[in-house]
């Protein structure tokens, strides 16, 4: 009995240490993400300099989508806001600001508790996807649709570079909710041009891939599948992203999965490597 109690106590202590270790890993990755994400883009260079770079990149994306005949974001947003009560767009504003954090964190915690065998691969995938996205934020600052018609003082394009009026509505400003990173101190701290790739989309698809095997009921699986679909719809109707951002976000997730699996396999081989007998 004493040995059983000791084994149970040791297992509990090991689990606690692992929980705290995972929390430290997650906090470290998020600290790097937040620091790098907010260092570049709208916070960089002389006034108007970062705006011009991000605006030119936006024109490149729009030209690319027009070449494909798929620059439909403004038409979709206009249609949606013409619905009764503006389609209750405030709900999508809240969804945009909260769901990617809440759902992703919940999926990560549930995976840790329910499926520890899959956990290392998908934790690594999330970390690698997030860190890879930083390369995009730093190398390709992108003005989101909602800022294209704004004055330069509100992170819009420099007047001399304006080519056309696009007609997007900044729903975060026009239909405010109880919070918004589009105003006050958050507007100055947050990188307004961290749009390529869309981590909202990447994290939403990651959450769906993690949660789908964990849920049993059909309606729950349906909600899981709907989450990334709703996220892409949300980023378009709120004019926070182009559809291209979402596509690249999914591609970055795929690359993150490949790298994350290789890292997990490497550590698994090291952990199970045979110990050489002592002479």
Report on this model:
With 279 residues, the chain is mostly helical. Helix content is 66%, strand content 0%. The protein has ten helices and no strands. The chain has helices at 2-39, 49-67, 73-81, 89-114, 119-139, 171-174, 184-189, 199-211, 218-237, 243-271. The longest helix has 38 residues, at 2-39. The protein is globular. The two termini are 37 Å apart.
Low-pLDDT sequence parts: 1-10
Distance between the termini: 37 Å
Q: Average pLDDT across residues? A: 85
Radius of gyration of CA atoms, rounded to a whole number? 22 Å
Strand content: under 5%
Question: What is the total tally of β strands?
Answer: 0
Series of H and E elements: HHHHHHHHHH
The main sheet comes to: none
Shape: globular
Our count of helices gives: 10
Binned, the helix content reads 55-70%
Structural class designation: mainly alpha
């Amino acid at each position: 009995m004493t040995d059983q109690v000791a084994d149970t106590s040791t297992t509990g202590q090991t689990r606690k240490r692992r929980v705290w270790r995972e929390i430290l890993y997650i906090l470290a990755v998020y600290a790097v993400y937040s620091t790098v994400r907010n260092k570049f883009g709208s916070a960089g260079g002389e006034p108007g300099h970062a705006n011009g770079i991000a605006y030119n990149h936006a024109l490149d994306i729009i030209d690319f989508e027009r070449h494909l005949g798929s620059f439909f974001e403004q038409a979709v947003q206009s249609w949606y806001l013409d619905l009764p009560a503006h389609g209750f767009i405030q709900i999508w504003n809240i969804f945009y600001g909260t769901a990617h954090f809440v759902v992703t964190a919940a999926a990560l915690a549930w995976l840790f508790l329910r499926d520890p065998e899959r956990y290392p691969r998908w934790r690594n995938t999330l970390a690698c996807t997030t860190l890879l996205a930083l390369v995009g934020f730093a190398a390709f600052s992108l003005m989101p649709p909602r800022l294209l018609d704004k004055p330069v003082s509100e992170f819009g394009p420099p007047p001399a570079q304006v080519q056309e009026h696009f007609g997007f509505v900044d729903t975060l400003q026009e239909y405010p909710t109880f919070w918004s990173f589009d105003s006050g101190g958050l507007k100055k701290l947050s990188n307004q041009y961290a749009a390529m790739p869309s981590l909202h989309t990447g994290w939403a698809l990651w959450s769906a891939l993690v949660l789908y095997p964990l849920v049993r009921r059909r309606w729950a699986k349906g909600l899981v599948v709907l989450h990334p679909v709703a996220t892409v719809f949300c980023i378009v109707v709120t004019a926070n992203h182009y559809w291209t951002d979402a596509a690249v976000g999914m591609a970055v997730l795929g690359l993150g999965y490949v790298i994350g699996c290789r890292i997990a396999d490497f550590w698994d081989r090291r952990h199970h490597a045979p110990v050489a007998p002592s002479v």
